[in-house]
Amino acid sequence: LQLESLNVLNKSANAPFPIGSTDTKEEVRLVHRPWDLRNASLQRNLMIRAAVARAARKYLDSQGFLEIETPTLFRSTPEGAREFLVPTRTAGRFYALVQSPQQYKQLLMAGGVDRYYQIARCYRDEGGRADRQPEFTQIDLEISYATMPDVHNVVEGLVCSVFREAAGVNLQAPFEVKTFDWVMSTYGIDKPDTRLGMEIQDVTTTMASVQAVLGGERLQLIPVKDSIARSQADRISKEWVETCPDHKIVFLSEKHLSDPRSMKLLQNLTDNEMQSLLKHVEGCKCAFLVSGVVDDVSGTSAAGKLRISLAQYLIDNGLLVLDPKDFRVFWVVDFPLLQPDEEVPGRWQATHNPFTSPKHEDLQRVLDDPSILPNLKSQHYDIVCNGWELGGGGIRIHTPEVQKSVLMHILGDEERVESQFGQLLKGLSLGCPPHGGIALGMDRLVAMLCGAQSIRDVLAFPKSTKGNELMTGSPATVTEDQLQEYHISIARQTDAS
Predict the structure, then answer these.
(1) Which residue, 399, 412, 350, 370, is CA-closest to 106?
(2) C-alpha to C-alpha distances, 5 to 1, 11, 12, 479, nearest whole angstrom
(3) Contact 360, 434 (CB under 8 A)
(4) Are 75 and 62 in contact (CB under 8 A)?
(5) Using CB atoms within 10 A of its CB, is residue 400 exposed (0-12), middle (13-18) or buried (19+)?
(6) C-beta atoms surrounding 211 within 10 Å
(7) How confident is the model at residue 131 (pLDDT cuts 50, 70, 90)?
(8) Which terminal residue of the chain has fewer beta carbons within 10 Å of its beta carbon, N or C?
(9) What's the CA gap between 52 and 163, in Å, rounded?
């Protein structure tokens, strides 16, 4: 090439930080996001994100799905998370930003749409975490006349296509199916990273003499193949006890495993208990015992939290190396339909959402005796990979009688049920067919394919961990005239900084 002329199209102000700098704080990067976006890794992440959306649309179009946009402005309904309210110029009337297109897509099924999907924006007023944002994106789909295997088959094809076309990764389908009870007892969490190993062993009966000394409803053992120094074990144990005060922990060092009766707690082991212990810790350098209440209701149990802490210690010290390309995808099924409401003792809440159907064989029982609802399993399913919940869905309640029974058990107020869910109940009453679907978290999926530690690294303009957009300084104050137009009075001014 021969240069004939050179024109300056624009001048750059002083660089806020070197592009690609690893020393720059995330808050500074978010303030100067347009500059930060020039980072090659962020450019790559956005390209992978576009490839995921493209692959998802290509696959779902090939399977006869119809892409349909549903409204963002909805009405306030108790679906689990805190909502963003949107005031209107009619005094006392509010919209709510949709937490998901859940009710709309079910009403599409009632309206005769056979297969629906959209790449949907969703909004939940939750605290920021590495895998959460107040606004996020879902690959959302629903299928009429679908059974659980039907949905699994479609989703497995979708996930395999996305991994292959966006990241060049070939997954093997069908994916393994594990029950909620099994993953909670084995890993202590409903979205386990199976690469970590350290499967939890229930030794309540096989080490009864130890359980009798420590007390509690259950005794669990976590075997560790690598050696952990006593000082580090004490530090991990102390931090764990602060989050699990109702449980006890005992560290078994390599010495204790080679000669269990050298430890006072283990001196009275019977021969059978000794053989059971040695079998559980075969090939291990140390182990931990956890005693306490049975806490496998949902989320992460005390033993599950300890397992994750141990894995993080091993990773940080180079003792456990995870292959970022080793994607272990599987389904988790048979979740409890309801779980205790942590904020209101004696009340129940949906484990996932109040639209998930009980097992088919229990539907008539629900109508005959709604009090059995807390004891039932649901037709919900999660798709999990390497410690991330990629998505969740279920077979829905499609009759108004069962749906109203479930809502009444949760809300306990027929007027609230009718006012907040009347549109859904009316839709179901029009001969709505059986249906089911799923919502895949697109942000999490892209983060996994990119190897990102946070979904903020796969979004062009993410919010901070506090839910603020630092680049624009939002949320921000508005004028008094705007407040009056929307009939809003500020009861107390707080410092938004």
Answers:
(1) 399
(2) 12, 17, 20, 50
(3) no
(4) no
(5) middle
(6) 20
(7) low
(8) N
(9) 8
Amino acid letter, residue 183: V
**Strand 85-87, strand 94-97: pairing:** antiparallel
Q: Is 123 exposed, middle or buried (0-12, 13-18, 19+ CB in 10 A)?
A: buried
- The kind and range of the H/E element at 248 are strand 248-252
Q: How far apart are CA 211 and CA 217, in angstroms?
A: 8
3-state SS assignment for residue 18: coil
d(Cα 92, Cα 280) in Å, to the nearest integer? 62
Terminal Cα distance for the chain, rounded? 53
| β-strands 248-252, 218-224 pairing | unpaired
Report in angstroms the alpha-carbon separations of 371 from 332, 343, 374: 26, 20, 7
Cα–Cα distance for residue pair 403/48, rounded to 1 Å: 40
- Please compute, for residue 4, the number of CA atoms within 13 A of its CA located in the half-sphere on the CB side: 0
Q: How far apart are CA 340 and CA 347, in angstroms?
A: 6
DSSP 282: T
Distance CA 358, CA 376 (A): 7
> Which range is least confidently modeled, 1-5, 45-49, 410-414?
410-414
Cross-sheet strand order for the sheet of 73-74 = 73-74, 94-97, 85-87
Tens-place pLDDT, residues 168-183 = 999 999 999 999 999 9
Phi, psi (rounded to 5 degrees) for 192: -75, 150
**From CA 248, how far away is CA 227, in angstroms rounded?**
21
Among 149, 129, 66, 135, residue whose Cα is nearest residue 100: 135
- Cα torsion 448, 452, 453, 456 to 10°: value is -100
pLDDT tens-digit readout, 145-162: 999 999 999 999 999 999
| Whether pLDDT at 349 is above 90 | no
Which of 360, 347, 355 has the alpha carbon at shortest distance from 400? 355
Average pLDDT over the chain reads 93
